[in-house]
Design goal:
mainly alpha, two-stranded antiparallel ribbon, 8 helices, 2 strands
Length: 250
């Protein structure tokens, strides 16, 4: 009787360990897929001339431009006929040309000397016959940079107009709507972007545009708040200096 009990206990333990092993294996199989990690930029001597607000504006600008470059790549992939309208020998070559023009603040010839919102209007006009992807990305980047005072890096003496940055966010929203609604002479979208159909959903363009809009809105609010808090801190300093002094205790 005692031997049978020991055998039963051993069998129970074996089953329990097997279940635990299966459970752990299942948990490991359901572990979230790694999606990278946040990484800060390397320290630079120029940061000594930047406040926290300057640094935030600089990083936001860098991310917004990189977002536009990612959108350019996506748009070229969905609209390869656009880069083929140019002298570029490949999609990558076309991207490099537009990126260089934006970074170096050079005009884009097909935009006929127009900059900022005037350039965006031309790039989104149904009658525009040039490389619409290049024109749209260049014009949008120029508008965003113009809204930041024509700068892509910000230092202690630089100021940002919160309303201009807010307006830039609304301009991007308008551009996204126009891309989805306007049609060319053949009745097709000006550029193929997001897709919802029987073969699947591709909303990566909307997400990337949404990130740019969100960064612009956050910077606009942060800039306004910075000036508001500066005024409050000034008043607190006056009040504190008058009424919040330590009193002698002996």
């Amino acid at each position: 009787m005692h031997g049978r009990s020991s055998s039963s206990t051993s069998s129970t333990r074996a089953v329990a360990w097997s279940l635990c092993g299966a459970l752990l294996a299942g948990c490991a199989g359901n572990a979230p897929t790694p999606r990278g990690e946040v990484k800060g930029a390397s320290a630079s001597p120029v940061e000594m001339a930047q406040s926290d607000a300057n640094r935030m504006a600089t990083l936001a600008m860098q991310e917004n431009l990189e977002g536009l470059f990612r959108l350019m790549d996506k748009l070229y992939r969905r609209n390869p006929a656009e880069w083929r309208k140019t002298s570029a020998v490949s999609r990558e070559h076309a991207i490099d040309q537009v990126r260089a023009a934006i970074v170096q603040r050079q005009p884009w010839a097909p935009l006929q000397g127009r900059r900022d919102i005037a350039a965006m209007g031309l790039a989104l006009a149904p009658e525009f016959v040039g490389d619409r992807v290049a024109a749209f990305i260049h014009a949008t980047a120029d508008m965003v940079i113009t809204a930041h005072g024509g700068k892509t890096e910000f230092f202690l003496l630089d100021g940002i107009d919160a309303q201009h940055v807010y307006n830039a966010a609304r301009n991007v929203e308008s551009a996204v709507w126009l891309l989805a609604q306007r049609r060319n002479a053949q009745g097709q979208p000006l550029l193929w972007a997001d897709e919802i159909g029987p073969h699947g959903r591709n909303l990566s363009f909307e997400r990337e545009f949404g990130k740019i809009i969100a960064r612009l809105d956050l910077l606009a609010v942060f800039t306004t708040e910075k000036y508001r808090r500066a005024a409050i801190s000034y008043v607190q300093g006056i009040v504190g200096g008058t009424f919040l002094q330590f009193l002698p205790v002996r």
